[in-house]
Amino acid sequence: VDLTRRHQTLRDALASSDDAVRYLAACFVKSGLDVRHALRIICDRFGLSPDLAAGPLDDAHYGAISAALAGNGRGQWGVSAVWQSYVDHDTWFARDKTGRRLHSPATNLPRYLRPALRLCGDDHLVGLDLRCSQLVFGAALMQGAGLAHYPDVALFIESACTGDLYRVTYAACHNGELPTEEQRDEWKRLIFQHWWYPNTHWQRSATNPIASLLTAAFPNVSDWILGQKRRAGYAGFPIDLQQRESEVFIDSLALALRDAEIPVLTIHDSIVVRARDEQRAHALLLEALAHLDLDLRTQVKREVYGPELLS
């Protein structure tokens, strides 16, 4: 990660030679956060007194909410993101030099606070999120390498494109279902930590039960992953996928949205647009994803954000 990105300002982005960054910076200028609504979401989500959402938005107010969230990492992250970027206006906006991702206060905002976002003064927004994004880009590479004739690779590609990959892999490894969203998120974390992105030694280790289960269920996928890490290094593998993701969401989609005069916030593998622009934005997103040349249509998850949503 390029840690110097926080020193790059919104003014720098507005003067960038990168057309996509310049447009996305102009869109960000037209965005904002309903801070009071964000604080109400935090209080509601983490069981705090609703009185903490009121107050003068000063250091003492921040300290009171932070103290009430002591030991709660997700809550602390949310309050910090709100205060730093939208109360103190410490605004940074930059594209990193590794994965080519765009980083901004919007990308640093926890997902559960997105209902408090505003765009061009509009408080009814829609998020369009590519499901299983990094795995979809991996699936496209596997298909391009001619590996789809292997049954396990074909299953991987199909379930990644349909957004069903975490359920399918869990069922293959544990002969059971993922009953809750929290268990799905934990299984996703384990897949990335122990199979998809660790170094080759740990991925192949007999003491790594997660990778062992996934390798048994998806042997040719596992061999492909190891080959990518040998080629690019285990750190280079995720960077390569992030760069491919950024080419779609920033270099291609953002410019298409600019030409269609649709304001947008990009959040890595998702976009946020006004509800009135959803249909056109969705079509342009699918057009950008079509360049992956996958046989199956990728699945886009839709989330509606509005002031009536507390959490």
Shape: globular
Number of strands: 8
Query: Count of helices?
Result: 14
Largest sheet: 4 strands, antiparallel
Oligomer: single chain
Fraction of helical residues: 40-55%
Distance between the termini: 30 Å
What low-confidence regions span 5 or more consecutive residues with pLDDT below 50? none
Q: Determine the strand fraction and express it as a percent band.
A: 5-15%
Write the layout of secondary structure elements.
Layout: H1 10-14, H2 19-29, E1 31-33, H3 35-45, H4 59-68, H5 73-87, E2 94-95, E3 102-103, E4 117-119, E5 125-130, H6 133-144, H7 151-161, H8 165-174, H9 181-196, H10 200-204, H11 209-217, H12 219-232, H13 236-259, E6 265-266, E7 270-274, H14 278-289, E8 300-305
Antiparallel strand pairs: 1-4, 2-3, 5-7, 5-8, 6-7
Helix pairs in contact: 2-13, 3-5, 6-7, 6-13, 7-8, 8-11, 9-11, 11-12, 13-14
Question: What does this protein structure show overall?
Answer:
The structure is a single chain. By secondary structure, this protein is an alpha+beta fold. Helix content is 53%, strand content 9%. The chain has 14 helices and 8 strands. It has helices at 10-14, 19-29, 35-45, 59-68, 73-87, 133-144, 151-161, 165-174, 181-196, 200-204, 209-217, 219-232, 236-259, 278-289; strands at residues 31-33, 94-95, 102-103, 117-119, 125-130, 265-266, 270-274, 300-305. The strands form 3 sheets. The chain has a 4-stranded antiparallel sheet with strand order 6-7-5-8. α9 packs across α11 (209-217) and α11 (209-217) crosses α12 (219-232). The longest helix is centred in the C-terminal third of the chain and has 24 residues, at 236-259. The relative contact order is 0.15. The model has no long low-confidence stretch (mean pLDDT 92).
